[in-house]
Amino acid sequence: MSRIRHYIDLEKAYLYLGVYTLKEYPLDSIIWIISIILREITGFIGVLLIARSLDGINGWDFYAICVLFSMAMLTESLGQSFVDSVWSIGSHVRKGKFDTYLTRPAPVLMQLLGSRCNFQAMSTFTMALVILIYGWEHIGIPLTIGNILFVLEFIICGTILNTSIYLAFNSLNFWLVNSGNVAELALTFRQFSKYPLSIFPKLIIGVMTYMIPFGFVGFYPASYLMGKTDWNVPVLLPIVMLIVASAAGLIWRTGMKGYNSTGT
Amino acid sequence: MALIEVENLVKEYKRKISGEGIKDALYHILHPVYETFRAVDDISFSIEKGESVGYIGPNGSGKSTTIKMLTGILTPTAGSIHINGRIPTKERIKNNREIGVVTGNRSTLYWDVPIIESFRLFQKLYEVPDNIFRKNLEEFTEIMGLESLLHVPERQLSLGQRMRCNIAAAFLHNPKTVYLDEPTIGLDSESKRRIRTFIKKMNDERDTTFIITSHDFQDIEMLCRRIILINHGKVVLDNDIEKVRKDFDQKKKVRFEVENNYAMKSGEHCLPGVSFQYIDSYLIEAEYNTEEVDAMTVVGFVSKYCPIKDITITGRDIETIVQDILYKRL
Ligand SMILES: Nc1ncnc2c1ncn2[C@@H]1O[C@H](COP(=O)(O)OP(=O)(O)O)[C@@H](O)[C@H]1O
Ligand SMILES: [Mg+2]
Hints:
By secondary structure, chain A is mainly α. In chain A, 72% of the residues lie in helices and 0% in strands.
């Protein structure tokens, strides 16, 4: 129990350092915020244009796409804010930076995730919330306690699921030290999560559901909210999250063990 | 049981062999061939609490590899390590609470925030009580001259200032043992001096055990009571520095300043166990073996030929002794 308190304290200390860094570079932060908002908006417009030309994608109109896109964005921006350093596993391996973490009395993964926060991404999180509410109102999704709890569940489980997939991919850098960043591949797959999965061939739907389940950070939860699926997403989501997180943890630990034995 | 017990420690690295010529190179991409390289080859030693050990040897002899195994960064290929009864890679977090690690050229502080904020994070990380943290911070600031550095982000500090902060950081949680791998590499003399004073004080007053590797033999001479010399991954020598001096320093040097050394130089006079060298016409250097002759005999001999104005007698420093041991010039 006191261990958990200690780790919470430690996490707070890391977050505090993150805030401090933000204050150190106010101008950088502003440019960062503007550029990520622009990036998200262009991405959003792209999806909308495609939806328009298809006259609503497969029964997904403008508002439905708002809900889908914003949900995918919620998990992504929350991950960027707090645990973006999963993306630096490759550079940590190449520069031997895990050496330092290995000599300190805290889990290496925790030290890694604490090493960088991008609170600027909370701006796109807010933007996503606004878009979600906008789509929600127009569609007339009932504002029940159940639905609100589901959105909370989705934000937490979805972010963990999203981060776990990134962790799994980034951990491949333990083996592929000299081959660029293989983890970029994960981002390619994630592109699919912005569109209604049902428009894609069966193979891609299968991959996005059972192998690299980005379907659960957007498509399935959005479908559930809008009554477009029979699946019991509130139950499936945490199960998928647990499975993926365990698998990612296993890959991470195996990679770390290799790091222990070969050095860099 | 000693604080640090190392038995028959071995570390082998796998290296990819890249063939010569394009044809070979292409072949090796498809069929990678590995050779194993023994960086640490059957090393044993034990270190008691409070010892100050210089771990020295030529470049590539396996010093950093040994330190990485002692600190739990690398898993040994064979052999065993016990630190305070624990295997560092097995009980990592428990062991890490009691150690400090400093690696030259590598900082553990946060680049963008003032040094004091990094220190506060370490306080949380190592769960250092406030009163101990404050007391240590005050004392370390004084010895290492950190007053003006604490509120500056690391990116604005010089290498020497950064290293001073890093070393202070490694002692903040009152570690039992501190491992220092080339802590003074590339530093200015002011930083080196402060660092040496600091480490010595921690060892004297708090009984903090430390192992240090360094290219600078002044570090070793000033800080260590014991040296472990390794070469090609094997221990060549493990003894008290004073003992090493006595055992290996059977040669001493006397330097005479004279009116004119012509009388001796031209006469080619010799004395058994002594070799004379004539630097210019005013100096004579005599290297003699302490087991064969004593200093008075040498002085008497020289004074027969040339009036002596001044004499200095020197032993050799540890650096020369170590070079001699490594390259068998003894
Ligand atoms: N990660 C590694 N992979 C392969 N060989 C290594 C690795 N690290 C060190 N070596 C080799 O092991 C030997 C010992 O290295 P090191 O322990 O760093 O020596 P020192 O610190 O005494 O200079 C060197 O020959 C070095 O090239
Ligand atoms: Mg080294």
